[in-house]
């Protein structure tokens, strides 16, 4: 009986051993038939390697694969569901070898392909807006012709401001809106006349400012044909798109120191205080977003350096700082849906108008803390939607009252210090009139105005 028991125990042990060994020998199927495809974003007949964004969508498929890894540009990354969009950042057209490995239960197979990608590298808007620092407006010049557009006078102004420590210039420009009896763009089609004498003077001003190492902002300024009458129709969209397409194409190869501002002070049908269409009107907000998007899309579509050129959009209510969170409450409301790192928002402030307006009074000054609080509120919202801010216009004007006062100086200085502390840039308004900061007897050679505003504002 003992022998039989020992034999039975040995037989059971043998069975268990065989069962264990057999389970270890069950083969796992290795991945097979691995394929990888690449889609370069922004390709076209004339841009076979992409539009300069550097974005490529990779997709891998294989039989029996459970996971995928990709080696690209010296990096190894997982591919969730076999897909990955990768952004190349080396400037120019470069060819990269890409290897994908498919895995299943410890076994793998791999394949390699190559992709040639065109990349334009530009600094993100966050960096550029900060680098712009203090700046000034070349007001009442190319947008309405009150001041001369001759390059001789403009050079003098630029030199004066550069000497004062300014790092950028904003040049307001009217295109399909008449200036001195003519337009830079066809009033029916929006096509820009590159041979117009005023356009050539504008180009000369831009080129000179860039030669002085300034950032340069150009925009579509008054354009009341659009702002006062916009109804969302294709007629307005096409004309406005044509203007920006032609502007962007002409300056396509300019450096990223040139910045495009889609539309100065959306107002009228886009929403304006004291009218039947308030900025808070839902339709006005929708129209404002749409107009900004039309210009934005037209610029980006031209490719070249415009793929990563900084574009600014503005809220309505004449660009009022208080409307930023209404017009752009979240990332998805922005052009590019919050994914465009080369987008910025420009806001303006002449608040309160009872103090800032040309008929205003120093008695209406609300104090430095109130001025700073409004800017800090904009900064808080900008941080929420991750967008940099340029204060593109602000100032105190007077038709007759004295501007060389302590509260006026404090107003300008407060905007300077508060914007810079929030990594914003500021562009003080100077129209050489009610809001003037410089003076010239001959309108050619300029000096600081006796109101001391520029000196006080730029002082450390």
Automatic annotation (TrEMBL):
Q: Name one matching Pfam family.
A: Cellulase
InterPro entries (alphabetical): GH (IPR017853), Glyco_hydro_5 (IPR001547), Glycosyl_hydrolase_5 (IPR050386)
SUPFAM superfamilies in the cross-refs: (Trans)glycosidases
Domain Glycoside hydrolase family, by residue range, is: 153-430
> Origin, by domain of life?
Bacteria
The protein's matches in PROSITE patterns, at most eight in alphabetical order, are given as: PROKAR_LIPOPROTEIN
Keywords, A to Z?
A: Glycosidase, Hydrolase, Signal
Its Gene Ontology molecular function terms? hydrolase activity
Transmembrane stretches in the record are none
- The reply on keyword Kinase is no
Whether Signal counts among this entry's keywords is: yes
Name the family the entry cites.
Answer: Belongs to the glycosyl hydrolase 5 (cellulase A) family.
Q: What protein does this entry describe?
A: Glycoside hydrolase family 5 protein
Species of the source? Flavobacterium flavipallidum
């Amino acid at each position: 009986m003992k022998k039989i028991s020992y034999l039975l125990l040995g037989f059971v042990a043998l069975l268990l051993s065989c069962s264990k060994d057999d389970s270890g020998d069950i083969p796992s199927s290795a991945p097979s038939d691995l394929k990888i495809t690449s889609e370069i974003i922004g390709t076209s007949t004339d841009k076979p390697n992409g539009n300069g964004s550097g974005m490529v969508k990779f997709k891998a498929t294989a039989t029996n694969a459970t996971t995928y890894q990709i080696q690209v540009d010296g990096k190894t990354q997982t591919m969730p569901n076999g897909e990955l969009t990768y952004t190349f950042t080396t400037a120019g057209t470069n060819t990269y070898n890409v290897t994908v490995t498919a895995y299943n239960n410890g076994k793998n197979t791999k394949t390699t392909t190559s992709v040639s990608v065109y990349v334009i590298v530009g600094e993100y808007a966050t960096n550029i807006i900060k680098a712009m620092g203090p700046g000034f407006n070349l007001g009442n010049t190319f947008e309405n012709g009150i001041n001369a557009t001759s390059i001789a006078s403009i050079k003098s102004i630029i030199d004066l401001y550069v000497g004062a420590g300014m790092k950028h210039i904003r040049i307001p420009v009217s295109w399909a809106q008449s200036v001195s009896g003519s337009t830079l763009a066809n009033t029916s089609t929006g096509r820009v006349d590159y041979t117009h004498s005023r356009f050539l003077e504008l180009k000369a001003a831009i080129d000179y400012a860039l030669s002085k190492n300034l950032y340069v902002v150009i925009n579509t300024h008054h354009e009341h044909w659009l702002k006062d009458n916009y109804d969302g129709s294709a007629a307005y969209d096409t004309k406005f798109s044509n203007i920006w397409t032609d502007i962007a194409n002409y300056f396509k190869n300019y450096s990223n120191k040139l910045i495009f501002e889609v539309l100065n002070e959306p107002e009228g049908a886009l929403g304006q205080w004291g009218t039947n269409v308030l900025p808070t009107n839902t339709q006005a907000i929708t129209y404002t977003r749409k107009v900004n998007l039309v210009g934005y899309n037209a610029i980006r579509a031209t490719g070249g350096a415009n793929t990563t050129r900084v574009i600014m959009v503005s809220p309505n209510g004449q660009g009022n700082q208080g409307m930023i969170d209404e017009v752009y409450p979240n990332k998805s409301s922005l052009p590019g849906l919050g994914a465009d790192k080369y987008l910025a928002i420009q806001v303006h402030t002449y608040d309160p108008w009872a103090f800032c307006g040309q008929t205003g009074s120093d008695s209406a000054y609300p104090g430095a803390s109130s001025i700073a609080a409004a800017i800090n509120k904009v900064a808080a919202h900008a941080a929420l939607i991750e967008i940099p801010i340029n204060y593109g216009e602000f100032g105190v004007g007077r038709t007759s009252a004295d501007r060389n006062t302590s509260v006026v100086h404090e107003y300008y200085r407060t905007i300077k210090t508060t914007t810079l502390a929030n990594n914003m840039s500021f562009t003080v308004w100077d129209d050489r009139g009610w809001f003037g900061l410089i003076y010239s007897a001959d309108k050619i050679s300029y000096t600081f105005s006796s109101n001391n505003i520029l000196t006080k504002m730029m002082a450390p």
